[in-house]
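## tool: complex_structure
## caller: assistant
## args:
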Amino acid sequence: MTSAASDGLTTIDIHGTEVQTFVGGAGPNIVYLHSALWLGDDTAFVHELAKHGHVIAPLHPGIGTGKDKNNTGSVDDLAYLYLDLIEQLKLKDVTLVGASFGGWIAAEMAVRNCNALSRLVLIDALGVKLGEREHRDIQDFYGTPDSELTRMCFADPARGGAELRSLGDDDLRRRLRAREALARYGWQPYMHNPRLKLRLHRVNVPTLVMWGDKDGVASPDYGKAYANLIPGSQFELVKNAGHLCHIEHPATVASRIQSFAHNR
Amino acid sequence: MRIYHFSEEPYPDVWTPDRPTLRVTLPNELCDPKRANELYHRYVDEWMLADQLGFDIMLNEHHSTATCLTASANLMLAILARVTKNARLLVLGVPVCNRQDPVRIAEEMSMIDVISGGRLEFGMIKGVPYEIAPANSQPTRMMDRFWEAHDIIVKAMTTHNGAFNFEGEFFHHRTVNIWPRPWQQPHPPIWSSTSTPANAKEIGLRGYVVGSFMGGIDETRKLHKAYAEGYREGGFGNDVPVDRFGYLAMCATANTEAEARRRADMIADYLRTNAQVADPFNKPPGYFSVDAAFRSMRSPNPRAFRTLVTPKGRPVELSTATLDDFIECGIAFAGTPDQVFEQICSFVDGIGGLGNLLLMGQGGHLNHEETVDSITLFGKQVLPRLKARYAPEMKFAA
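## result:
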């Protein structure tokens, strides 16, 4: 998730929902949707992206502290919220990047409307149900102790950053808000939309699906099958990386996104 | 004063302190159905005896656990509605936030009220944190869901001129028309339970009965004061009748103090095992506010179950407390009939009056013979004295 340590956040009012947003860098537009997981800190990744473009990275409502008279409560709400954000900021040729839960939102946006997008990048994205009903595609964040979850998210748990307990007050509160907000959005059906896989054929921009080769939350096989549902997409593994591969290897992942975005 | 006999219908055969959890993920291969059958019949016999002795009856429900075999309070209530004669039947309560269909709750409660001839006391509760997972229910915005479910249940019980429509934020029913309607009019007495003054005030605003569990004198008095504030604000009058308050404590009686203490210690395993829950299920996201979760993360012992303060100001952590700690806090009454009577009077007077005393008279490994002896002694030698001393029309003395 985006840390408060990021440069100052701008509050953008989108039809009654105040979204605290990181805005930085210059160049082609990159909209980045964060994972909402309460582990790790993606500040370094956001700064890497900002070396390559104009980054707009909103904190999902409930994690940011903006007022929300619309009671944003589903991924459907978030997909329309961020499509509205793109429209309101008059962004064109956007490279839309989403990691984990943020990848699910990005996919939901792309199946609705790709007009403002030029590229879609999904990093260890959640959002589809692929296995049998008794198979758990996506590990249960809320039935897993944090120590184990850290091992699923990071090939090297040392790259996961500080334990929650040792964070400063503001940062800890933000992580706890993330833990709650992610549940509000993804509790049931658990971290997926049963209809999304039937809609992914609608994605009509070049798509890159990147996956940590040691992702313990959603396996690389799940990632490959996800990518296969998106016409013409590319699937690539990030070596020696868990579910939050962009936090483990921020420069590598950001520069691969840059080369993908510029290869037209 | 009404005095309720309560048991969680435990299955204590597999309770060992070394198990990391007694709930949620404990495999049911450990539950022998033949043993469970004996236990169910035994606990019904104890409730029937309690009925004969002049007690009222309380039950609740828990899920995926060896601590409580009552997986559906409604099913057990239906049995008790038929086999008991006089006792009020209190469920505290139905976990309405973990139910998909509030109309079904209204139907079942009305059935039980009618079968029992109007003896139902209807508690609606949010549900405990570690049962979010077994119910797979959404742990965020639970209280919003709670009050919407409450609204549709009360409307279903009190609407008698045909079907009505309900399209809320959480629940949708286009044709609500329950049969039977409740025996008690306009609806059975409604209870809810809480441990926070804010919720106690909410319950007071509606004039319902507030139940609280093992909070000791200080905490309970604070809750009752908050309730009274809501009660007055709700326009129910300045004087709060003590029948608006229920309080749950553990209780064991015997002819000797030593035997009563031995029994109470077994019942107290109920509290000691409460903390035996696998970590991630203990604190579901959103169940506690971000502020409460923050305080818990910052506390020196985040696994602590609940900490009380004795009347002398000494903190007591319930999961590791001794029997004397429990007695000192007013969450266990144990001794000879005279001792138990005095302990209860001292507690009730200390909180400013009480209309409903909820007693866990069976818990843990306390066996049938011990339970029968304990509640019989209480029923014959303590209960009549309490009823004589605390008239139902008494008012809360804040």
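## assistant note: The domain at 9-262 of chain A is CATH 3.40.50.1820 (Rossmann fold). The two ends of chain A are 30 Å apart (CA to CA). Handing back to user.
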